[in-house]
Amino acid sequence: MRPYPGEVVYGVPVGRRVRQEWLSAQILGNLNKDIATNLNLKLLYLGFVNYETLA
To answer: Among 4, 5, 6, 46, which one has the highest count of C-beta atoms within 10 angstroms of its own C-beta?
Structure first.
């Protein structure tokens, strides 16, 4: 399925194929904790920050 003419898809400008972001950061958090003998808690957080649109 092709986008309509003039439609911006995933932030990529019309006529381009790739969107580049130079000012960005990725944050990863991981928690693995034993709550009881047979019970384990696992949490994973992955965040992405674009500094150009942050302010």
So the answer is: 46
Exposure of 7 in the CB half-sphere (CA atoms within 13 A): 7
For CA atoms 3, 54, 25, 47, give the dihedral sign. Answer: negative
Alpha carbon distance 49, 37 (integer Å):
38
Q: Whose structure tokens read 């957080």?
A: 45
Phi then psi for residue 54, to 5 deg, are -75, -40
What is the rounded radius of gyration, in angstroms, for the C-alpha atoms of the chain?
19
Using CA of residue 21, residue 13, residue 46, residue 54, what is the dihedral sign?
positive
Read off the amino acid at residue 28: L
